[in-house]
Design goal:
With 165 residues, this protein is of the alpha+beta class. The protein has 2 domains: 128 residues, no CATH class; 36 residues, no CATH class. Helix content is 17%, strand content 38%. The strands form 2 sheets. Strands 2-3-4-5-6 form a 5-stranded mixed sheet. β4 and β5 form a beta hairpin. The longest helix has 12 residues. The termini are far apart. 16% of the residues are buried. Bound molecules: zinc ion (ZN) (2 copies). One zinc ion binds next to loops.
């Protein structure tokens, strides 16, 4: 959503508020596979002594793919965003600064960028997810698969010892 800042850009102490459903599709990747509607972004742009300050609270339920078992699971997030808006791109190496397009700012671009910067690149459905068996591909969260004993070198050696006795 493009926010119109004409009313506040030259008036210290003024501000505009927003409450809308941001488009996060550009933040999706192999591990962050979807976003469940509704997504909500509530915030404001304020002119504080001549500096434009963008703040937002974003609430979304992400659909993530577990890095170990590959199952999709839902992951609710709350992301607070605080950033500064500038008029020209003279200070390009400044972090956490977004630039105006004329008297407008693209709120989706800020929210998407902050999402990419702040989200994990790797998700686990739970800290102790057991993942998939490397051999047969079974989901080990649902119980051990048949091949576990065969592949364990320690147990195989023990089996040989027992045979010799
Ligand atoms: Zn998992
Ligand atoms: Zn297996």
């Amino acid at each position: 959503m493009r926010l119109d800042l004409r009313e506040i850009i030259n008036i210290p102490g003024s501000g505009v508020t927003f409450d809308y459903e941001p488009d996060l599709t550009e933040a999706l990747n192999d591990s962050l596979v979807g976003v469940k509607p509704p997504v909500r972004a509530v915030g404001s742009v304020r002119n504080i002594a001549g500096v434009l300050s963008f703040s937002a609270e974003v609430d979304a339920v992400l659909v993530c793919s577990c890095a170990r078992c590959l199952k999709d699971f839902e992951y609710p997030v709350h992301l607070p965003i605080e950033t500064t808006l500038k008029e020209s791109e003279n200070d390009e190496d400044e972090p956490d600064v977004f630039f105006l397009e004329g008297d407008f700012i693209d709120a989706d671009e800020i929210i998407t960028t902050e999402f990419i910067l702040n989200m994990d690149q790797r998700f686990l459905c739970s800290e102790d997810c057991r993942g998939l068996c490397e051999k047969c591909g079974a989901d080990l969260n649902e119980g051990p698969c048949g091949c576990k004993l065969e592949t364990d070198p320690g147990l195989a050696a023990l089996g040989q010892l027992l045979e010799h006795e």
